[in-house]
Design the sequence.
């Protein structure tokens, strides 16, 4: 009797391999689902008045420290314990020296959300959108979720439904209230608590700016600081913008958006190579933008939030491009009119397009002399940044009030 080696044709082998992988994947996800359901079942028996933590703050990245710093310092001043959850191992919280603020690293992505989804707290404060929309679900043992913006004036520039399921939102100014209420009414949502508390980021930056040394014999400087994506400045114009700017003889600082370094890396590398020997062109990749902002006499940008940083902190003139903006994925698309964020940009800045590139030097010089635009900048600043220097105190006052109300309901 002859024994023949077992032979499986490539097609059958591929099918068997796919089936095996499918079974293994299904088993894995069924196991995870069972564990999650078991945890929910066990949590159901936890008394609702036994919150493990009173105040929790979540930072999805260390760069958000600047938005929470003044809040944490106010909690520290009042000797109130706070659990600060972060998805950065090197978050500044771990070297802050704050005794009442307890930092904890909870991982990134799904690992972080798995932790957050079973959190127990009276109040949770975060900059992260999409609560109860994507991976981050409302925990049954968190009484109140509060959102704080990481940019001025942009409640509707988040993706659809991003803020719908928060209980409260901290606002920089009253200009943001009407649009949020419009969406709530449109979607039949209960009204959130909208609290005008000022802007923690601007408050911290305003203090830091006082310590930036002045440049001796500073040249006239243009700061090119775009957002990223198809409608952003560098993507739209690239060298067609930078060539005429370089030709002015002025110092030109190019500060790409951090996301451009990830998703638009070939474009950044191409432009960097093109101007590597040009003494007028500098590239800024500093994590903090205030150093470049402090050097600029004028900004060239698009729809980026850095425009408000420059206008509110340095009262600088802005040349901007707002062409081909696609608002469809955003909450702003649900409005019957252009969002206030863009209306304000048009009021404080001078728009340009491709036809203006050859005369950009003259346009910038005229822009810097405009008294009307300077007055507009001051007007918009008062609307969009209220209570300068008071945000940390006002926010802790509000969060404390929420926690006390929660306790009173249960007593």
Sequence:
């Amino acid at each position: 009797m002859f024994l023949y080696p077992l032979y499986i044709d490539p097609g059958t082998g591929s099918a068997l391999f796919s089936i095996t992988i499918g079974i293994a994947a299904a088993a894995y996800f069924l196991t995870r689902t069972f564990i999650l359901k078991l945890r929910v079942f066990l949590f159901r028996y936890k008394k609702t008045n036994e919150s493990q933590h009173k105040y929790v703050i979540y930072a999805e990245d260390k760069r958000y420290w600047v938005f929470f710093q003044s809040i944490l310092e106010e909690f520290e001043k009042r000797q109130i314990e706070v659990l600060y959850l972060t998805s950065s191992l090197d978050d500044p919280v771990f070297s802050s020296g704050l005794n009442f603020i307890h930092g904890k690293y909870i991982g990134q992505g799904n690992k972080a959300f798995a932790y957050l989804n079973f959190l127990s707290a009276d109040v949770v404060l975060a900059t992260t959108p999409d609560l109860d929309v994507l991976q981050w679900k409302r925990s049954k043992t968190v009484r109140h979720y509060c959102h704080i913006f990481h940019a001025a004036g942009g409640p509707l520039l988040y993706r659809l439904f991003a803020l719908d399921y928060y209980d409260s939102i901290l606002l920089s100014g009253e200009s943001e209230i009407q649009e949020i209420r419009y969406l709530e009414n449109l979607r039949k949502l209960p009204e959130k608590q909208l609290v005008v508390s000022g802007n923690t980021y601007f408050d911290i930056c305003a203090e830091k700016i006082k310590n930036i040394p002045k440049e001796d014999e500073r040249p006239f400087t243009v700061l090119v600081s775009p957002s990223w994506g198809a409608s952003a400045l560098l993507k739209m114009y690239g060298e067609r913008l930078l060539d005429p700017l370089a030709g002015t003889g002025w110092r030109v600082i190019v500060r790409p958006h951090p996301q451009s370094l990830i998703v638009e890396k070939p474009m950044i590398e191409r432009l960097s190579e093109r101007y590597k020997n040009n003494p007028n062109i500098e590239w800024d990749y500093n994590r903090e933008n205030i150093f470049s902002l402090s050097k600029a006499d004028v900004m060239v940008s698009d729809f980026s939030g850095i425009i408000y940083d420059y206008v509110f902190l340095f009262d600088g003139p802005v040349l901007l491009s707002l062409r081909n903006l696609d608002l469809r994925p955003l909450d702003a698309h649900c409005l019957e009119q252009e969002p206030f964020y863009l209306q304000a940009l048009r009021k404080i800045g001078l728009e340009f397009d491709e036809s203006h590139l050859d005369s950009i030097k003259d346009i910038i010089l005229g822009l810097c002399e405009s008294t009307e635009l300077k007055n507009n900048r001051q007007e918009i600043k008062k609307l969009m940044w209220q209570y300068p220097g008071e945000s940390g105190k006002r926010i802790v006052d509000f969060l404390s009030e929420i926690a006390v109300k929660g306790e009173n309901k249960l007593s």
